[in-house]
Inverse folding.
């Protein structure tokens, strides 16, 4: 039999993800948990079939590109601006709280401050997939609280994108002097600024013009190919020409395309392939997780989950209270953000590759994500119940 590691990895990952994702849906859980479980099952820490980790990681990079392209396509400055007085200060304050708690836990575990900071950053960002699913399932997406939650999440995403840009520069200058470190950061920001300028001045005109010409041909196949070529080509060009991450390149490709008349159609055409590679991304993330950490490092796992659910949830509730928002909205937002997901995996994987996060830290982020996603539907139902009590009895906490 011919050696076909790529086909074997794709078949093993997708078939296992499909079966476990279907099981998760049957149990009324997010399919994301099934994909992560599939990664654990085909990973090196469990017996049986083991997928090719290097190939899975490369396929996961495509997943990251298409995920970020989708984030850019759905990024709306008007929507964020409408809730800016709540979402922007609330999100950045909550990120600060999560980073402080994560860094404090990291110091207690004997890690360096930079490792603790990255650990806290990974715990600060909620999952878009989980949050939108919960809001849609309970018909809360178009409510004032739902719009604040989405704006809050977009603000967190923007902060994470900035972190993805700066972390490699900080890692490369970790042992350098303060002056050299500042120089490295300024050079990185200069490259990012140059890339953004090119995208705004050239990409904003060329990409919509190109897609318009393709639309006139009447070929749906060519339009789909044009959208994918834009996402992948801009992401690769950003890395090759400006030395910025695939993630940032794909995000800006999406934001540029979001301003064109064809943005909705582009999102529809890119969605099938984006979803398939997003599944591979979550499977690859699961492959890096050693489930033995749940038994061997239980106290640290519980501490991580406490930061995500109690720390972030309480911070969101208190921040909403300070901003004088309705009590019901406070509970809904606290439950919505008391979980982590895809951006946390991206940050954790980046930290592990740059040796800014220990394998133990990576395992704790993964465990925290899996457990918080598992518990989130229950938290959401409790928040909705509490929202009703708060509405009926304003004097209650």
């Amino acid at each position: 039999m011919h050696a076909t590691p790529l086909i074997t990895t794709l078949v093993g990952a997708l078939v296992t993800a499909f079966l476990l994702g279907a099981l998760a849906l049957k149990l009324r859980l997010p399919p994301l948990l099934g994909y992560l479980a599939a990664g654990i099952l085909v990973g090196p820490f469990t017996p049986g079939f083991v997928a090719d980790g290097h190939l899975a990681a490369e396929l996961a990079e495509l997943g990251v590109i298409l995920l970020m392209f989708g984030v850019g396509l759905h990024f709306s400055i008007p929507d964020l601006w409408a809730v800016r007085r709540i979402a922007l200060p609330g999100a950045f304050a909550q990120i600060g709280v999560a980073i402080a708690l994560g860094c404090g836990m990291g110091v207690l575990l004997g890690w360096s401050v930079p490792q603790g900071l990255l650990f806290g950053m990974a715990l600060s960002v909620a999952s878009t997939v989980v949050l939108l699913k919960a809001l849609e399932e309970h018909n809360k997406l178009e409510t004032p609280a739902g719009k604040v939650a989405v704006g809050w999440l977009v603000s967190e995403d923007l902060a994470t994108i900035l972190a993805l840009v700066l972390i490699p520069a900080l890692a490369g200058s970790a042992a350098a002097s303060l002056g050299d470190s500042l120089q490295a950061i300024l050079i990185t920001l200069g490259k990012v600024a140059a890339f953004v300028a090119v995208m705004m001045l050239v990409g904003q005109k060329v990409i919509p013009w190109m897609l318009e010409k393709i639309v006139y041909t009447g070929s749906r196949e060519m339009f789909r190919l044009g959208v994918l070529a834009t996402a992948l080509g801009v992401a690769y060009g950003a890395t090759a020409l400006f030395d910025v991450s695939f993630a940032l390149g794909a995000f800006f490709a999406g934001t540029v395309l979001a301003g064109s008349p064809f943005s909705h159609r582009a999102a529809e055409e890119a969605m099938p392939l984006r979803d398939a590679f997003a599944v591979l991304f979550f499977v690859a993330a699961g492959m890096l997780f050693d489930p033995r950490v749940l038994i061997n490092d239980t106290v640290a796992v519980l501490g991580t989950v406490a930061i995500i659910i109690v720390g972030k949830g309480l911070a969101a509730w208190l921040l909403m209270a300070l901003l004088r928002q309705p009590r019901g909205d406070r509970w809904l937002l606290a439950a919505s953000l008391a979980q982590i997901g895809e951006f946390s995996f991206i940050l954790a994987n980046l930290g592990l590759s740059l040796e800014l996060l220990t394998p133990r830290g990576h395992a704790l982020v993964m465990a925290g994500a899996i457990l918080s996603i598992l518990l989130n539907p229950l938290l959401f139902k409790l928040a909705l119940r509490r929202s009703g009590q708060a509405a009926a009895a304003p004097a209650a906490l």
